[in-house]
Design brief:
- The chain is α/β, with parallel strands linked by helices and about 325 residues long.
- The protein has one domain: 3-Layer(aba) Sandwich (Rossmann fold).
- Helix content is about 45%, strand content about 10%.
- It contains 12 helices and 8 strands.
- The strands form 2 sheets. The chain has a 6-stranded parallel beta sheet with strand order 2-1-3-4-8-7, with helices on both faces. A two-stranded antiparallel sheet has the order 5-6.
- Strand 7, helix 9 and strand 8 form a beta-alpha-beta unit.
- It binds thiamine diphosphate (TPP).
């Protein structure tokens, strides 16, 4: 762990840990419910990327904006989407964040700043610019974070968005969660840049590269980028290095990830490492266990809430779609 001046204090670290555990337990619950046939959805695992997202979202204010992707449950939970409504939306139920009409790939919850979740790779970046322009015009002081993977940095929209954000000094953070694989494609197979952060230079933009699995380093980089944007200096491209501990989606056996690479990543699992670090800060084992079991209860209750909720009435499919509501 790095010990730097702008490091998060003990209270902030506990906040990050709490969010990371929520993500971790939710991810495991989704897997077990899908695997046992209780939930029939396409699921993009986030195990391994918990700390990165928890640290980034802790550096934001509740009304800051977030745009994320299909692999976004870590971002959404860390940003504060109520877990019961998130779970219900995943299950397509009327109590979901979008009344069951969006599903896992379209989680939207403006009350917690989650404005868009998209399944179209790279498409979130220009949308984030739009949100940032609105903040700039209104002078509301909000910062927008847009999350995407390493593969998305090869899409045209990435390059257009970085150029525009730099020209207009938009209050936006481009957070590339570099997990070294795009769908089933290794980084070096599809990405020309040695480091994604180097692409910031081409757009005369501030760039920062960080070990996203280190909560202290990740929080510091996140906070600096947030302060920079909020103070009117413009965007930052953050490349956070991480790893996903499973295939692209649940059911993908990840055979294309070299076994030794997977083993090394699991050996460096950020969750137990973070836990040990907190114990070293004189946080007691009893306090951590209590925190973890409290979160497990919330996750279990959210899953049950989703299962017990009704599916939307068929009329819902026609509501909120056209400007004029149909009778
Ligand atoms: C425009 C577009 N092209 C292709 C796809 C199919 N696709 C879905 S996810 C994905 C890989 C994206 O990888 P990356 O950006 O690294 O994100 P990760 O899944 O690793 O988080 C691809 C190619 C898509 N959804 N949208």
């Amino acid at each position: 762990m790095t010990e730097l001046e702008a490091s998060p204090n003990r209270e902030t670290l506990l906040e990050i840990y709490q969010r990371a555990v929520m993500i971790n337990r939710a991810d495991m619950k989704f897997r077990s419910m899908i695997s046992s046939g209780k939930l029939a959805i396409v699921y993009y695992p986030v195990r391994g990327q918990e700390v990165l997202s928890a640290a980034m979202m802790t550096a934001l204010e509740p009304d800051d904006y977030l745009v994320t992707t299909y692999r976004g449950v870590h971002d959404q939970l860390a940003k504060g989407v109520p877990i019961k409504n998130l779970w219900a939306e995943f299950a397509g139920k009327a109590t979901g964040t979008c009344k069951g009409k969006g599903g896992p790939m379209h989680i939207t919850h403006p009350e917690s700043g989650v404005m868009v979740t998209t399944g179209i790779v790279g498409s979130g970046l220009p949308i984030a610019n739009g949100l940032a322009i609105s903040s700039q015009l209104r002078g509301d002081g909000r910062v927008t974070v847009v999350c995407f993977g390493d593969g998305a940095s090869n899409i045209g929209a990435f390059h257009e968005a970085l150029n525009m954000a730099s020209v207009s000094k938009l209050p936006v953070i481009f957070l590339c969660q570099n997990n070294l694989f795009a769908e089933h494609t290794a980084y070096s197979f599809g990405t020309s840049a040695k480091e994604i952060v180097d692409r910031a230079t081409g757009y005369n933009m501030r760039g920062a590269q960080v070990n996203g699995n280190d909560p202290i380093a990740m929080y510091r980089v996140a906070k600096e980028a947030v302060d920079y944007a909020r103070d009117g200096h413009g965007p930052t491209l953050v490349e956070a290095k991480t790893f996903r501990f499973s295939g692209h989606l649940l059911g993908d056996d990840s055979h294309y990830i070299p076994a030794e690479m997977m083993a090394a990543a699991k050996q460096a699992d950020p969750m137990p490492a973070f836990r040990s670090y907190l114990l070293g800060l004189q946080v007691s084992e009893a306090d951590l266990t209590q925190l973890e079991s409290g979160i497990q209860t919330l996750v279990d209750e959210a899953a049950q809430f989703a299962m017990d909720s009704d599916y939307p009435d068929v009329i819902e499919s026609r509501r909120d779609v056209l400007a004029e509501e149909l009778p």
